[in-house]
Amino acid sequence: MAGLAPTYGRGAMTNHWVDISNANLVLSMGGNSAEAHPVGFRWVMEAKEKNNAKLISIDPRYTRTGAVADYEVNIRTGTDIVFLGGLINFLLETDQIQHEYVRAYTDVSLIVKEEFGFHDGLFTGYNPDENTYDKSSWSYEFDDQGYVKRDDTLQHPRCVYQLMRQHYSRYTIDMVENVCGIPSQNVQEVWNMIAETAVPDKTMTILYALGWTQHSIGAQIIRTGAMVQLLLGNTGLPGGGVNALRGHSNIQGLTDLGLLSNLLPGYMRLPSAEEQDYQGYIKKRAKQPLLPGEVSYWKFYERFHVSLMKAWYGDAAQADNNWCYDWLPKLTEPLYDVIYTFERMHKGKLTGYFCQGFNPLASFPDKNKTSEALAKLKYLVVMDPLAVETAEFWKNYGELNDVDSSQIQTEVFRLPTTCFAEDDGSIVNSARWLQWHWKAAPPPGEARPDVSIMAGLLHRLQRMYREEGGAFPDPILNLTWQYSNPEDPGAEELAMEYNGRALTDIYDSNRNIRRRKGELLDDFGMLQADGSTSCGCWIYAGAWTEDGNQMARRDNADPFGIGMTLGWAWAWPMNRRILYNRAAARPDGTPWGPEKRLVWWNGHRWVGADIPDFPDASPPSAGVGPFIMNQEGVGHFFGGSMMMEGPFPEHYEPFESPIVGNPLHPNNPQAVNNPAARVFPDDRARFGTAKEFPYAATTYRLTEHFHFWTTHAKLNSIMQPQKFVEIGESLANELGIKEGNKVRVSSKRGYIEAVAVVTKRIKPLQITGQTVHQVGIPIHWGFKGVAKHGFLTNTLTPAVGDANTQTPEFKSFLVNVEKI
Amino acid sequence: MTLQVTRRQFFKLGAAGMATSSMAMMGFAPDAAQASIRHFKLTGAKITRNICTYCSVGCGMLLYSRGDGSINSTDDIYHVEGDPDHPVSRGSLCPKGAGVLDFIKSESRLSHPEVREPGSSEWKRISWDDALDRIARHMKDDRDANFETHDENGNLVNRWLSTGFLAASATTNETAYLTHKIVRNLGILSFDNQARV
Amino acid sequence: MRGDQINLQNIIARSASMAPSPQERSGGVEKVAKLIDVSKCIGCKACQVACSEWNDLRDDVGECYGVYTNPMDLSPNTFQLMRFNEYEDEQGNLEWLIRKDNCMHCAEPGCLKACPAPGAIVQYANGIVDFNEEHCIGCGYCVAGCPFNIPRISKKDAKAYKCTLCSDRVYHGLEPACAKTCPTGAIMFGTKEDMLEQGAMRTDYLKDRGYKNAGIYDPAGVGGTHVIYVLQHADKPEIYNNLPSDPRISPLTEAWKGVTKPLMSAVIGLSALAGFFHYAIKGPKEEPEDDPDPEKADADRALDEKSPTQALQDADEEGRE
Questions:
Q1: A706 near A761, Cβ under 8 Å?
Q2: The predicted structure's pLDDT at residue C251
Q3: Is C48 in contact with A719 (Cβ distance < 8 A)?
Q4: CB–CB of A441 and B188 under 8 A?
Q5: What pLDDT does residue C267 have?
């Protein structure tokens, strides 16, 4: 979660599902948790009942979350930073912040470089030709010892507090009303409710999902929310935090394990092409504390890295070959994300592509472009339990997929795989819990587990490289493969591999033996940088120890009665359930309030209902900060150089916006849309304008369906059988559309047809004096499956992503609607 | 007020499909009033604990299958419900999870490898060995042809940019770990998952 | 089967039967109830799916008619469904009222009173009203007898179907499938006493939150129900997709039950007897092959196309001639 890591240190849901019930106020914004996570939403209902908590739903539409909310407001899609920036301004100007927390646990007192500035929508260092920033001014002032200068009085004009205050002073309540379309009276009422949680013993929790992520400014929206929670002193406490509700059952796991273009397992980074020197690579990432005595846990980066190299390459990785550093592929682009990859594929630069349980034709922006791109491949391999659309991109399904098979030369393989019910293993939920599951039945027909398919391909390649030679076979031939069945490695042995083990006897500083050779490690504290440990994913160290499979634990005892079931499954890191939980205690180590007890100092060490996310013997008097992954030990209002657009979140309009210009910077054309976004010229040519496509569209999922899977499941297809779009009554009246009519929705990139759901739940908004209608488009249904076949929604969406993550802007774009 | 059954209604009531019950009423059935609520369908089922494969709440699931695992029986899942011990879901499942049986048993489940040849408009069934041999050959040919050891500035980069890989966010950590281990060591950088969609 | 025997013991009312039920072992059986708290419902349809999954029902994949409700109505394969209503009060405040529509398991069940087939509808001591399709003759009188418009007659087998309150699960000590799966706790299950207590607590909670007319829906006109609602606006049940404000068993059904039913049963029995002999001699038949009168056959088809309720009303009218 690209907005959370730069603020708190880790990019993950801070709290956990059951903990939501400890909240005094729940803000559902940038997500529709009742719709997308109904069972998790249970704990919102519990908070309402148990703590008399209120639920606020802020969404472009009145949603299923809105149906049970205490306060429901509708916002123009893509304007959340304006609302939250206005909230920051309100909290600062009315001084409704959690003072003790903000002073002790955040960066407000740190002093920023003199060169840093913000003018007319752009931060210092902008290069308009390349849409990038030179970030050298986005940093602190340092003293002689290399530590950041600070002013604890917060009076210094360039301390973070003053800069933040100045930055958000433009976000007035009138601006919010004008840009977001929420009447100022409603804005004020919501802000007042939120401000009440600035007291030490009350918390608000924020629940968000792709409604914040899928914007060209998505990561910055998330960061703004995270900053609000710092101001209110809500992060690290029970019932607080910023809860990123992830979409897929193991997307947290795949991200943890680094299955992204630029990552290695455990959020380590692949080197860039310039980083030819191993020591330089490590030094840049082994981040040292920027304030005296802070933890800055990434300082141990080399231990994690070397242990991974030992897990992958075994004896081939040695100190004298820099642990095979040269074998790692090096990056030239910051990301080789899917928009980038499909742009290259569309240009004919890719030969082959693999889709393992992934349906890009349906899931990626601009379906017609995706389809054209796939047609340029020599080979496509789809491994999936289901007959998905992507595997048949070459097949004509009338208007739904209008292609000429004979003109498509791609060789397509469709390989049947097992599903969750047919394998053993662990998946990681949004709350970072690794939960083990067991196989219940064999798969249909000849379907195989993915590991056996991958092993089959690897072994064939190894054989060919041994027999024929070829391009750089070293990493392929030296990959460790100590599995009892090499053709189908078992989940247990793979889990032990990523947990890590001692390769030689390991001793502590007093020469007492900690682990004997071959034994599994207890936690990442045992990892070594000298090649004596192996570990496939350092943050998972502790998942499978000498005591057995921790992920399979099933003790649901909750001894403190606040939903902390530490004996159920296992959470990274170190089984800690609420991140940054040191902040749940005052600087002196006592809880902020009796209702918010989580971990505290007992005079000798940190104890409590959770595993302390902190050095457990570090006394409060040492003053170590609770955000142990950050170099300063504190939470960041000032994002430094970690974000592409700037250190403070700023509002920019969606790339397809229903209004002209950016009301915050009406005179600067460079500051209309995200100045740091990467837009390929071909994609830019496929953006529409409000003249042709006057309505603001947003896409989302429905609770009855899961992406494009459940349209293959009869029960779910019965519940929601056919593609529809949601249109407000007022727009429907204008266009003569009645409930149940067929409509055509078009964007610059194509059109879909669907049934109209005409609803009171979408109201026109007044934006800068103009009426803006919003149209809601569920993502589900395609041309396969047992539900009524339909058009793929991503026919409409633009191929532009967030500047940090390249997450497509699926939540804000322009369409036209016609009755047919 | 007197109610009578008209001829039409009489015919309707006497129509096919109801003879048995009426016969029972007339005393033809040996156990006239045998109340038969449905048999309890879980008796004797094998229960396997699992975690829902859809969203990220991670609800506990109990998969009920026929057969007790003995050598002559084949397990077949026929019912799924929530695991009441699970601290988050406490037995609940959402409409997706509650209907997951129809995903497991979907008529769209693939059961054997297939290939669609260039220009063809249909699938052709092939063996696993054929499929994997052919795919591996494609990979090797492409990798050998397009592998970059150095970039244009002479930096050692050891990467393979002409093939990409999307990994599945519903697979296990163990699958994901092994997938990463293989894909990265082939030199692939166009590697992604569903974190963003 | 043991279950059947114990349930027989626990049957307290049986359609079209004058025979007394065993009484002695019914003592100590708690009345059960399902509480549907509309104020906690997000309309996710998990209950709808769990119901179908448990009961092995798969309705047809239909169409979208421009609303979230789907399928559009109850059917022999849809025992319950979520009905969505966008309600705007006089001040223009919008509420999305979503009501789970299913059998209410009336304490005085109109369906059971109307049913002419002995043992086709039974009421257990715990309050559950169950259809036993083995005994059902598909006459549709239960449809007319129901003040909530719940039972549906199958075109496949001409038998009536409806929610069983998962009597099979409840007998085995489990909660109904819908109650178990409900993500938000909007559906609860327990003794009726406990559910009324829970409902009262929720009513107080809602009143504290400004719903001054919040209350429990447990209509006295049918003797109370074993499915009860918590409504934010208990003074206006009709805004919840036409939940009847004062449901009662129609006087016609009451009369039917009291006077004519045994006679009717005898008549049906004769008709079935005739059918039986026909079957025994000629094998299975499709109607109306044995009735060559084309005019009548048309009339029969027309009857088939009518809703069972309508058919019964027609029958009633003709009976009055």
A1: no
A2: 83
A3: yes
A4: no
A5: 53
> CA nearest A744: which of A651, A643, A817?
A817
Percent of chain C with pLDDT over 90: 66
Query: B116: nearest CA in chain A?
Result: A412
Cβ atoms of residues B164 and B142 within 8 Å = no
DSSP 8-state class, residue B100: T
- Dump pLDDT digits (tens) for C298-311: 444 444 444 444 44
Within the 157-196 window of chain C, which residues sit less than 8 Å (CB to CB) from chain B? 157-159, 164, 167-169, 171-172, 177, 180-183
Q: CA C10, CA C122: separation in Å to the nearest integer?
A: 10
Domains of chain C listed by start with CATH number: 2-238 (3.30.70.20), 260-320 (no CATH)
Tell whether C56 is within 8 A of chain A (Cβ).
Answer: no
Is B1 part of the contact surface with chain C (CB cutoff 8 Å)? yes
Check residue C318 and give its pLDDT: 38
pLDDT (average), residues C200-222? 97
The model's pTM is 0.92
Strand (E) or helix (H) holding A83: helix A80-93
Radius of gyration of chain B (CA): 29
Partner chains of B (3+ C-beta pairs under 8 Å): A, C
Looking at the structure, tell me whether residues B56 and B127 fall in a common domain.
no
Q: Tell whether the model's pLDDT for residue C286 goes beyond 80.
A: no
In DSSP terms, which residues pair with A26 in a beta bridge?
A55, A205
Please name the residue ranges forming H helices in A709-805: 714-719, 729-735
3-state class (DSSP) for residue A459:
helix
Nearest to C16 by CA among C165, C147, C155, C117: C117
B127 part of a folded domain: yes
Instruction: Calculate what percentage of chain A has a pLDDT beyond 90.
Output: 99
Tokens of A395: 């097949």
Question: Is A507's pLDDT higher than 60?
Answer: yes
Interface check B173 vs A, CB under 8 A? yes
Chain A CB within 8 Å of residue C63 CB = yes
Nearest-CB residue to A34 (from C39, C42, C95): C42
Q: What are the start and end residues of each CATH 3.40.228.10 domain in chain A? A: 5-106+175-247
Q: Distance from B69 to chain C by nearest Cα, in Å?
A: 23
Regarding whether B136 and B75 lie in a shared domain, the answer is no
Residue B113: asked if its preceding bond is cis (omega within 30°), the reply is no
Q: How far apart are CA A582 and CA A627, in angstroms?
A: 8
Residue A549: which of A583, A525, A588, A520 has the closest Cα?
A520
B35 in a structural domain = no
The reply to whether B141 and B190 lie within a common domain is yes
List the helix and strand counts (H, then E) for chain A: 23, 33
**Is residue A14 a contact partner of residue A242, using CB atoms and an 8 Å limit?**
yes
Confidence band, pLDDT 50/70/90 cuts, at residue C30 = confident
Q: Are C184 and A38 within 8 A, CB to CB? A: yes
The answer to whether C55 and C75 are in contact (CB under 8 A) is no
Please state whether beta strands B76-82 and B124-125 pair in parallel, antiparallel, or not at all (unpaired): unpaired
CA atoms within 13 A on the CB side of A516: 1
Structure confidence at residue C282 as a pLDDT band (50, 70, 90): very low
List alpha helices for A94-217, DSSP H: 99-105, 160-168, 173-180, 184-195, 210-213
Most B-contacting residue of C10, C49, C303, C317 (CB-CB within 10 A), to test interface: C49
Contacts of A722 (CB under 8 A, 6+ apart): A754, A755, A781, A787, A788, A790, C62, C63, C64
d(CA C67, CA A468): 62
A49·C49 Cβ contact <8 A:
no
Strand, coil or helix: C143: helix
Q: Which two tokens stand for residue A772?
A: 């803006």
